[in-house]
Amino acid sequence: MEKSLQSRRKAFLFGHLSIQQRLPLFICILLLIVVTAFSCVSYIEVKNASMAAARERVTTLADKLTLMFKGSVDQYVDTLGKVANNKDVKEFIKSGSVGAHARSLELFQTFFKKDTTNKLLQILDRSKNTVIRLGDNSLDLKLNIDSMPMSAINVANMGGAGRFVLYKGSMYYPVGAAVIDSNKVIGYVVDWKLLRGTKQSVEQLGQLLGANGRLFFGNDDNSFWTNMVQPVAKPSVALARLQQVAEYTRQSGGPVVGSVRKIPDSRWLILVEFSSRTFLETANVYLRWVTIIGIVLVVAGSFGGWMLSRSMTAPIDELGRAASAIADGDYSAVAQVRRKDEVGQLAESFNIMAARVRQAQQGLEQKVEETEKELQTAITGINDQKENEKKKDEFISIASHELKTPLTTIKAFFQLAVKEMQPEFKTFSLIHRASRQLTRMERLIEDLLDVSKINSGKMQYDLEDFDFQQALKEAVDSVQQIFPDHSLVIEHSASVIVHGDRHRIEQVIINLLNNAVKYSPGADKVLIRSELVGGHLMVTIEDFGIGIDEQHIGELFDRFYRVNSDRHFQGLGLGLFISSEIIKRHGGSIKVESEPGKGSAFTFELPVTMLN
Ligand code: ADP
Fold this sequence. Notes:
The chain is α+β, with helices and mostly antiparallel strands. It contains 13 helices and 20 strands. Strands 1, 2, 3, 4, 5, 6 and 7 form a seven-stranded antiparallel sheet that branches. Strands 9-8-12-11-10 form a five-stranded antiparallel sheet. α11 runs antiparallel to α13 (about 575-585). Adenosine-5'-diphosphate binds near residues 562 and 563.
């Protein structure tokens, strides 16, 4: 859920795009939003203003044209009224005299002929019966005089224009005037006129109105509408709405703005109509310009954004290039950014950091070189040391072998001499001491021989099951004989059978006992314990001598290692090395616990075959 939210946020913020692409895109979108919003709002404003102007124009024109056409109607009625109110006409209507009839007829004919649009003239008496009829007799135009407006045109005349009538494809309208005698209507004169506008005249009228305006005439009962050339469809909205201004659609001409007025003194309506498109043209032109300017702005803005982001990201790219070069091991790489802004500072810090890395790297390389040299020297040293050790081992091996044979002969000679010589002889004690020194020498050579055997892996072990208790006792007794001034006390002796080389194990015990005595110049007691612990035999030889400092304990079992190399304690530093090797070969271990000035306790541990 969290992940998908993150990825959605990422996608929204163009996380997958580079910074260089993101900034211009962001500016482009921002400008698009601003330009679109501004264009829409201002277009709506301009459109509303245009439509308001259209409504204003329609209203004004409708009002003016109403007055104009009222004037025309009044003029018609006035002209007709003058004829109608002729004294001969009045006399004829009142008396029906033949003379008045003839004169009236002549008057009417003269009037009738003056205008070719006059098609039928009817004179009605008081009872609204036609008494004279002039003009086209085939015109069967039904007249309802009551539907004619009889408005007071001026002091002398009353009358008005009646509704349009379509008859055999032509349009007619009646203009009527009352015949008044002594303030009483005694008859009517009705002039049926042909409505005959030409296309040209209609177009001229349109041009006069301007802005593709059109003018329609209609009956006040909305039964008929014409553009003065032919009948036209009714407006598609209710008349009540048209009395103000209404917007609607004309089937043939798209959206229009129109307004209707009643022409006084007539049963006519006029409708002034303007095509909305004409007025919206301004708004559309405005929109077109705003769109063009908007596109230019978006393109320029995006380009500017791209340039800006390029100038911002170029140094970052340069930094990245330098960083990758350093990552690839080229520590001489430098970010070439010459700017004083934040990125410039970053680049400067980066270059300082790179210089430090370079220094550190060089330092490290130098150190590695030195260490390598030291290592090489050390290796050479070790090799030399190994070589020396090898030579030493070879020498020890040869020397000990070569010394052993003459020593054995000398020892045999001295033993014979001691046997043969009387103890009273002065030289006896000297020979006896020399013989003891020979035994010591023999032990030293034995040790050297053992070391070379261990080194060459040729140490032989005669393995057998032996009684450890007995072996321990014999070893202790033999050492006790040599050192009668010390008392070697077996505190506890476990009775077990050990599988191993009895002679070598005894050698270990004797070694440890010799050391215990040797390094106890101020004490005369050595304690010996052997016990079974957890199925293992633990043998401890404890003395109360000089003890060993802790720092030496780790190396005590190494070859030729001696804590006190002074002449006071003689030795080669081999006894503990040989002993620990023997114990290890028997699957055991050896350790020491010691305190300087108090004494030492050496313990070796051996696996036990069985209890005795
Ligand atoms: P060394 O011939 O010198 O006795 P060892 O290998 O037997 O050689 O002993 C090594 C060293 O350990 C001796 O030089 C001595 O300093 C020390 N050491 C051995 N046993 C004892 C002990 N019981 N008390 C004190 N020091 C001892």
